[in-house]
Specification:
Shape: globular
Largest sheet: 9 strands, antiparallel
Low-confidence stretches: 1-21
Mean pLDDT: 86
Distance between the termini: 90 Å
Helix content: 10-25%
Structural class: mainly beta
Number of helices: 4
Length: 356
């Protein structure tokens, strides 16, 4: 009898330890895998790389699938019979105070969106940090109603909203499978952080990168600088899911000309800058590809805003690039808020490249 009792105690002790290990395996706040008939860790990723000088780092990511609830008395659970994603982030203030808001998770094309699950997410609405301070948060996401599930994608995009002296966003590309990790590692994006990569339609295979450094001033209006040009061959990207395709009039094999510029207003009057930028090549005028440029629309500026960086993207045929030895980039005119042109606000940069 004593021997039988000892055996029962050993079995119960082993089961309890096993359950504890399962609980510790998952990073989702308040998540109890034992509540479900089955729980599977589909993907686990630690310390995903951050871009240089970024304020947000991915410490840990998990894609998790649950089965039905074990307990009949529980009538509702948002995670039951679902695939969900949990991400642990480290937020770091550099040399300025930082304010951080709840980020958004989308597919790379931004057509599919995901919601945070409040009951399984760190309790915060915004984070305020002083220089040098850090804080970690954990967020759990589910697809929005009528949105595609995680199983339809290998790569997603986390957009972080940060305010220092100015407001900005930092995008992190998140692989949610081993295939996604491979896609991200092989993806060519060039140097300039325009929106070609974030839209995930194409990858950029750099052809030419030129440092230019030209400057012009429109008196009483603003100061304009042209820093450089990155020319890239557009190739189809594997980052977007087949279920989330985006129709575009830009085709693989065309060239993207990304101009790095900065603009600073010299007036206290709020005005619209870069509303209608154009590029003239071989006598033909091109408008900027707004969906690929960053920011994608015009900029409202006064002198208080300081210098603002922008990447303007123009898409041309490769054959046109081969014929070009000079071009003209126009950043004007500047407009008032009622969309009337400001006199003498046209700014043109003449460019000569010669043999390439």
């Amino acid at each position: 009898m004593k021997k039988l009792l000892l055996t029962i105690v050993l079995v119960v002790s082993f089961s309890f330890t096993n359950a504890s290990l399962a609980e510790d395996l998952f990073i989702t706040p308040h998540f109890q895998p034992s509540n479900y008939k089955e729980t599977e860790l589909l993907y686990d990723l630690k310390e995903w790389r951050a871009e240089k000088d970024s304020h947000v780092t991915v410490r840990h990511l998990q894609l998790i699938r649950t089965g039905e609830l074990n307990r009949e008395e529980t009538t509702y659970d948002r995670l039951a019979n679902k695939i969900f994603l949990t991400v642990r982030l480290k937020i770091e203030a550099k040399d300025q105070p930082l304010s951080y808001s709840i980020p958004s998770l989308t597919s790379m094309s931004e057509q599919t969106e995901y919601d945070t699950v409040k009951d399984y997410t760190s309790d915060f609405t915004s984070i305020e940090l002083e220089p040098g301070e850090t804080e970690e948060i954990t967020l759990t996401f589910l697809p929005k109603p009528k949105s595609s599930g995680f199983e339809n994608f290998h790569v997603l995009q986390l957009t972080n909203y940060i305010a220092e002296e100015t407001y900005k966003t930092e995008r992190i590309i998140l692989p949610i499978s081993e295939e996604g990790k491979k896609i991200v590692q092989e993806h060519k994006q060039g140097i300039y952080p325009d929106n070609i990569q974030s839209k995930a339609l194409f990858q950029k295979d750099p052809v030419v990168q030129l440092q230019i450094e030209k400057e012009q001033t429109a008196e009483g209006i603003g100061n304009f600088k042209l820093h450089g040009l990155e020319v890239s061959l557009l190739k189809e990207s594997k980052m977007h899911g087949q279920i989330d395709m985006v129709v575009s009039n830009v085709k693989p094999g065309q060239l993207a000309l990304s101009f790095h510029i900065s603009v600073e207003s010299s007036s206290d009057i709020k005005r619209l800058f870069n509303l209608k930028p154009t590029l003239t090549l071989n006598g033909e005028k091109y408008s900027a590809a707004r969906s690929f440029s960053t920011p994608g629309t015009f900029i409202e500026l006064t002198a208080e805003d300081g210098e603002i960086t922008q990447y303007l993207v123009f898409v041309i045929e490769e054959s046109e690039w081969r014929k070009v030895d000079h071009a003209s980039l126009s950043l004007g005119p500047v407009f008032a808020l009622d969309h009337r042109e400001v006199n003498q606000s046209n700014v043109d940069f003449l460019l000569e490249w010669g043999d390439r």
